Amino acid sequence: MYEKILLPLDGSELAEEALPYAEKLAGRLGSEIILTHVSELDTDPHEDKHRSYLQKMVEVTKEGASTYHDKPGNGPTIEVKSVILSGQPAEKIVEYAENENIGLIVMATHGQSGIQRWAIGSVADKVVRATTRPVILIRAKSARPDVRVKGILNKVLVPLDGSKEGEAIIPYIEELASRFKLKVILIQILPNGYDAGYLYIPLSEKQMESDRAHAIDYLNNIGARLKEKGIVVEEGLGIGSRSGNMAEQIIQFADEAQVEFLAMTTHGRSGVGRWAFGSVAERVLQSGNTPLLLVRSTEAGGKQ
User: Fold this and answer.
1) ∠ Cα 205 211 213 (to 5°)
2) Which CATH superfamily groups domain 4-139?
3) Alpha helix locations (H) across 160-240?
């Protein structure tokens, strides 16, 4: 599932914020890492500089990945290679990921190149919308400070919406959790009303209690399936439900639980509250404080 990891770099320190995540993933999973730079020029006068930079980063990444082996210094050497592509950055990243059967794209957002001047933030947005591959987006700016201090990939928050589409994220979390001993926190955000034309109709307390009980049962069932596979699902805070603005509540819950990253499906649609996970994921990406793993739901047909 994660055999190949693609990490785009634009020459900036901000873009390199994603490197530790790729290194740890590859070190524990045995994945190959492919570092790429995309030149928008057919004939790039700085190509030698790009190649030199990427080769330096290949060596840095190999060394970094080796430290994440279960037995540092005794594990297999992680294969790291580089490639320079030409064209529009987002298009070429997506195209390369498809052609090379990339298992995961890891990108920093809001980085800006000191060499080629293309904004990683806007490129990341376009890649997320276009690719069918899982993407981990690392917030290079405005991230919660304790995210990096506490560690990488130790605790994950998984918002679910009660739909099969929303559950597309689970196999990806299962593999990560089994290899990284992740603590998994499940949450479902419940709407407290619905739009009726120009009016917002609040749900009755009885309906809210019914929805809440249904959500708890649903999350307990998902949690039980994960526990059967030896995955740690955090109790109490971990399995629960909240009501309110979906994206805001997810971000607030992630901060309170002090998770290292969020994992969500895009383009799933709720069978409970009828909210599009795509738009919620976008708002979480724009306003959240932690890295975000996004997986496109095949049930949604890959449509925007």
Assistant:
1) 100
2) HUPs (3.40.50.620)
3) 170-180, 205-228
